[in-house]
Write a structure and sequence with these properties.
It comes from Steroidobacter agaridevorans. With 229 residues, this protein is mostly helical. Helix content is 66%, strand content 2%.
Length: 229
Amino acid sequence: MPKRDYITEILARKGRHHKRGSRWQHAARRLLELSYAFKYIDTPNQAPKRARDELFRYMPVAHVAAFKGFCRLAYADLISFGDPFLTNARALKDLRFSIEPVLAVEGGFASGGELIAHLLPHKSASDVQRNFSTLLGEDFMKKLESESFTPHDSDEPFPMAEISEAIWRGLHRIFEMRHIICHELATKVHFSPREIKEVTQQCVVFVIVTEQLLTRTLAETANRPANSR
């Protein structure tokens, strides 16, 4: 099996992004298009039922791709910010690479944050929870529970502590659904539009609230003296 070229993979992925924009702008651009697509196929008589049912199956796949893309950008931003996140990254496990990507980082082809983010596992919600907990230096799940979420059709924020369990349950489920659709024939499997809508919305909420948390955390850290981080 040929040896993986991590830097080429990173540069290829970056080349498929818009050149300008924050991690949130990149994620929001993709999630907005998915919301339009979902509304279209969720509208009766837009397509035959069999076609709609098949198209619905791919919504979890697309949302997990957007979710993972956002997380990679977030990991890279945290590490590239510096301490304490850079020091915390030393505790990340199973990161093995040869001298070539290190030299490429030194040469400015990619950042250290991008290299580490590229190599971190993203196969489950548990992986994501563990990665963020390690980089932040505290339990990510509990940290998220201190945030709130305000739906677009409401002025009332929901404390994340009240919906955290449902969000994480939805994330585990959407990863499971994505695995089934991508790796199995699954001819007997039927996911209801209602369940798909629920787990994709939970995925979007997770991204929004995580962005809130990271934006505030980075701002607060930047305002602290370097020797107190």
